[in-house]
Amino acid sequence: MYSIQEVSQRTGLSAHTLRYYEKEGLISGVERTPGGFRQYSDEDMEALGLICCLKNTGMPLQEIASFLTLTRRGDQTLEERVNMLRAHRENVLTRMEEMRRYLEKVTWKLEYFTRKLEAYQNDGGDGETR
Amino acid sequence: MYSIQEVSQRTGLSAHTLRYYEKEGLISGVERTPGGFRQYSDEDMEALGLICCLKNTGMPLQEIASFLTLTRRGDQTLEERVNMLRAHRENVLTRMEEMRRYLEKVTWKLEYFTRKLEAYQNDGGDGETR
DNA sequence: TATTGACTTAGAGTAAACTTTAAGGATTAG
DNA sequence: CTAATCCTTAAAGTTTACTCTAAGTCAATA
After folding, report:
1. Is the minimum CB–CB distance between B78 and chain A shorter than 8 Å?
2. In chain B, whose CA is at the least distance from the CA of A129?
3. Integer distance in angstroms from CA A35 to C1' D12?
4. Residues 6 or more apart from A10 whose CB is under 8 A from it?
5. Which chain A positions have a beta carbon within 8 Å of B99's beta carbon?
6. H/E element holding B39?
7. Is the pLDDT of residue B130 over 50?
8. Which residues of B92-101 are buried (b: 16+ CB within 10 A; e: fewer)?
């Protein structure tokens, strides 16, 4: 079992954010000490791993919350979850491909500017304030 | 010369967004008709192309604005611009690699759930509400 | 000429994902 | 025991990037 601080360090999410995620329904059923402190189980950590994974590939928190709500409803929601993941995966692949194309253009621009800079420097643009 | 509607269609940015970008200093010096309507030149279109490119690779609008402000100051800012682009390119590459790793994990999860779903369906989970 | 529809501005409103604040209760090192 | 630290909730505030509204101006057409 892990305290909220430990979980924060392991996941890179702030304690604030962890509570926020709980409020938003991303995680639920986190155990508490008699004093009311959160105690995260390994299962919770597992779920948080998936949350980060989906978040970092651009899934909105609301959709992540839906996904994890389905997970809690058990195997009868497997098909829906598979569909969600499949759609998400396609989206990510599309975005990555788009990104790759845009990055190519950035690379060309960079090369163009680099050549232009060299020309400018060789041409006496350096420090010559005459 | 293009009207704001034409530019909107060509760039995929709404007319609202185009005016917003102007207000935020991303573009400037857009010509006007006697009546005050915006008339975008090919140069403006060129700049908008770069803006979209940088935006779609995740550069914040503020930074894009800085970049284009430097561009307007001319060749003496070439070095700074090259540095910005280089740094941006590195960031994008890093993010893409991170993305790739996260997507891999999503793919595993998807495969795992798919197998689990098949097992569930073959096991009579289909419509049997008994 | 009248009307439709696109354009103008300033400024308010929205959505997502936090982040901070306020006010106070619990736990632990010394 | 007590100070320091960590925890609690509810709610307000922040940032980014739009998006919309209101009130009015301009242009083309029937």
Report:
1. yes
2. B76
3. 27
4. A2, A45
5. 56-57, 92, 96, 99
6. strand B38-39
7. no
8. beeeeeebee
